[in-house]
């Protein structure tokens, strides 16, 4: 069966230029893919640069710097507290030494360390809101409406 003249010329054109067309389609697809990846890389670069920018108070670098300043201030306060502790220990040691000297100088004087018989705060209620005690029987940590905790 013979092809019409316009199809036979198209077939010969496809045979000679078919690989060129396929190569151009592949190049167009690869170009589009490269462009798509470049757009994603630019977006990622913009996102990372905004994370290290001081204009945004939520930026990563700002948060790290802020935490560093907080830890430095806590370290300074701890140094001051350590210095105060050493000074107070020295003061207490000197007072203890002085107390021992006084005890040696006057052995007839005694200090009574008896515990007082009456409570210092007789009306003190350590559980004013009647918080439930889970260790007691029939008690749980949840207060149900209308329930009062049983404390034995």
Notes on the structure:
The chain has 152 residues and is an all-alpha fold. Helices cover 61% and strands 0% of the residues. It has helices at residues 5-51, 60-105. The chain starts with a helix and ends in a 47-residue tail after the last helix.
Q: What does the average pLDDT come to?
A: 77
| Helicity range | 55-70%
Work out the radius of gyration. 43 Å
Total number of helical segments?
2
Measured by DSSP, the beta-strand proportion falls in under 5%
Question: Strand pairing plus helix content: what structural class?
Answer: mainly alpha
Principal-axis shape: rod-shaped
Characterize the biggest β-sheet. Answer: none
Distance linking N and C termini: 109 Å
Count every beta strand, where a strand is a DSSP E run of 2 or more residues. Answer: 0
As residue ranges, the low-confidence spans are none
Present the secondary structure layout.
Blueprint: H1 5-51, H2 60-105
Transmembrane segments: 20-37
Keywords: Membrane, Transmembrane, Transmembrane helix
């Amino acid at each position: 069966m013979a092809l019409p003249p316009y199809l036979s010329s198209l077939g010969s054109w496809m045979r000679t230029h078919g690989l060129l067309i396929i190569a151009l389609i592949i190049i167009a697809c690869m170009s589009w893919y490269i462009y798509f990846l470049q757009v994603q890389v630019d977006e990622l670069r913009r996102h990372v640069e905004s994370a290290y920018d001081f204009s945004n108070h939520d930026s990563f670098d700002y948060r790290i710097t802020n935490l560093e300043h907080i830890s430095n201030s806590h370290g300074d306060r701890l140094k001051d507290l350590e210095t105060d502790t050493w000074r107070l220990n020295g003061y207490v040691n000197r007072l203890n030494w002085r107390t021992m000297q006084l005890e040696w100088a006057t052995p007839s004087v005694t200090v009574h360390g008896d515990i007082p018989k009456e409570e210092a705060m007789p009306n003190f209620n350590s559980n004013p809101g009647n918080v439930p005690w889970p260790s007691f029987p029939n008690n749980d940590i949840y207060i149900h409406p209308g329930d009062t905790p049983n404390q034995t």
